[in-house]
Amino acid sequence: MTEACKAVLVAGVPARFGQSVWDAVGTVTAGRRKGLFYDEQAVVTQEPGPGKLSLAAIEAKQMTEFPEPGSTLPFGRAAPSAAGSMWGTSVRCPIAELVEMEELKRVTLKAEFVKLAVVVVLRDTSGQVLLTQRGQHMRTFPKCWVFPGGGVDEGESLTTAACRELHEETGLYASGGSMRPLCLWESVFPTSSQACLEAGQVKGHAVTVFMEAVLDQERAQQLVLQASECDACVWVPLEQLIRWHSTCASDTPPEGSLEESLAGCEGEDLKPCRIRPKQLQGIYPNDQGEGIGQGHLYAIAKLAEKARGCHTGDPVQKRPRVTGTSGGSSL
């Protein structure tokens, strides 16, 4: 087993595929929060070496496993969505639910250790963010709209992997110095416990680090889409994405705003196309069979909080167990 397969560490121990990383980090409920479609806690992160990420509960900041101060970041995972949420339908993180139901033994785990991934939330200087649509042929999350990203290779730092993935998928360059960590997400596929049981396997389990980067508009237009993974792309004003999803309770999308199409591109030759906002609205898969990956929407929620100074949820409270049946994405 290569060291790259042991990329995510909790208390110095490699996180195992099929075991909840979010639960393993800490159990202090006072530091947890319930959002509109996610559970969240603050964690201390550090890269102990290339291709590795260590996580610890916020109370562990001075422990010996973190000899130097690390970055404190919000760490989210899928949770049942609030009634009527514009963010879409979400169910509980399938790994957490399979463990609680003692059903994990009924599914095949596709790896031994949790994967480390990185995603780039790329903005141009006008405030637009870049979304790409995963290919229909993809093994996981087909037709899902996401920010560019992928797995961290052995020997790569998070910023090096972020720059590489951004360039491979879009042809765009961003310097490592421009990258800023935003949040973490525990990603699982299939996206519900029932879907995992029906498939007889958990195909994907990763901790994804979302990084922010900004490009000037001239460089942002030098886009070359990786056709083997991406079917289409679109630049979307961040404020529009926030309005469409009613980030704060006081917000409602302007009437007619979901009918105004956006200028996008598709295919390797970047053929112009129109992207309907309803293709982008809500957690993948939405009623259009598209939508945005849930972890990517979580990153949008974090950007919205930074911009507006409001939270998208309240402290975690005890709630009835909800068994995932359909909808909701852990990407």
UniProtKB/TrEMBL annotation:
Pfam families: NUDIX. Residues 310-331 are annotated as: Disordered. Signal peptide: none annotated. InterPro entries: Nudix_hydrolase, NUDIX_hydrolase-like_dom_sf, NUDIX_hydrolase_CS, NUDIX_hydrolase_dom. The keyword Lipid biosynthesis does not apply. Belongs to the Nudix hydrolase family. This is Nucleoside diphosphate-linked moiety X motif 17 (Nudix motif 17). It comes from Durusdinium trenchii.
